[in-house]
């Protein structure tokens, strides 16, 4: 492609197209998020095709920004984790693409345990009297646990995740007896270990309101939560959301 069809842009021109500061574009070029080169005078240049590709990689929802697309591109996790499946084997919202970009930009997937999230999971188990509590994050292929109490597994396939339903809820999503619920009774996590019967999950969101995953509690016996227990779970999920937004 020649220069007329794909003009060369300065960092300032690229910044204007992207709606960010010139210094931000310079940083993205240096990191490799935007394909670029240096002139003999040491100035960065790129082509408009590189900027268009970046802008198209940010889905059209307002909460998926170009900055998030850049952070997603820099994620050490496989890009396939953050691409929506054409026909997923689980429920997905219309803004799933934007949600996955937000999750990638959070930088939380596959990170070491952190006391701030471990503490939230422990408190969720204690205040609800549940043997299992999780801070669960949902990529397109995995349910990965940032924090977990009472469960040895670090992750499960996304298709098995009760949390796929919970992130679509505005508040708490509760299943009192999974064996009687047609959505879950044949689930491998119900038929096999940990033999889920009760589940309650509340979305954990980023600053823009995108659900990255959930704070959830699980029991091996059918049950209900008292109003105070449910409110405590919601409050802890709000704290987890605040923590997720700090990265």
From TrEMBL:
InterPro entries under this entry?
DNA-bd_dom_put_sf, GAF, GAF-like_dom_sf, HTH_17, SinI_DNA-bd
Which CDD domains does UniProt cross-reference here? Answer: HTH_MerR-trunc (cd04762)
Q: Which Pfam families match?
A: GAF, HTH_17
Sequence ranges assigned to domain GAF in this UniProt record? 112-246
Please give the Gene Ontology molecular function terms for this protein. Answer: DNA binding
PANTHER family (alphabetical): GAF DOMAIN-CONTAINING PROTEIN, SLR1143 PROTEIN
Q: What is this protein called?
A: GAF domain-containing protein
Source organism per entry reads Pseudoduganella dura
């Amino acid at each position: 492609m020649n220069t007329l069809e794909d003009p060369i842009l300065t960092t300032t021109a690229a910044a204007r197209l992207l709606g960010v500061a010139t210094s931000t574009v310079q940083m993205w070029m240096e990191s490799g998020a935007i394909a670029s080169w240096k002139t003999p005078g040491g100035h960065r240049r790129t082509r408009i095709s590189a900027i268009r590709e970046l802008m198209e990689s940010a889905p059209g929802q307002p909460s998926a920004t170009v900055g998030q697309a850049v952070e997603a591109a820099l994620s050490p996790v496989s890009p396939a984790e953050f691409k929506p499946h054409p026909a997923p084997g689980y429920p997905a919202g219309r803004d799933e693409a934007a949600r996955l970009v937000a999750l990638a930009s959070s930088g939380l997937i596959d990170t070491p345990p952190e006391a701030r999230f471990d503490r939230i999971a422990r408190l969720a188990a204690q205040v609800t009297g549940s043997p299992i509590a999780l801070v669960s994050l949902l990529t397109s292929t995995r349910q990965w646990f940032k924090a977990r109490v009472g469960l040895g597994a670090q992750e499960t396939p996304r298709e098995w995740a009760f949390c796929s339903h919970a992130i679509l809820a505005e508040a708490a999503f509760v299943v009192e007896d999974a064996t009687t619920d047609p959505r879950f009774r044949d689930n491998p996590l119900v038929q096999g270990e940990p033999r889920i019967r009760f589940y309650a999950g509340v979305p954990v969101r980023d600053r823009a309101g995108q659900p990255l995953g959930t704070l959830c509690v699980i029991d091996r016996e059918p049950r209900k939560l008292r109003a105070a227990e449910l409110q405590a779970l919601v409050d802890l999920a709000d704290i987890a959301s605040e923590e997720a937004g700090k990265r």
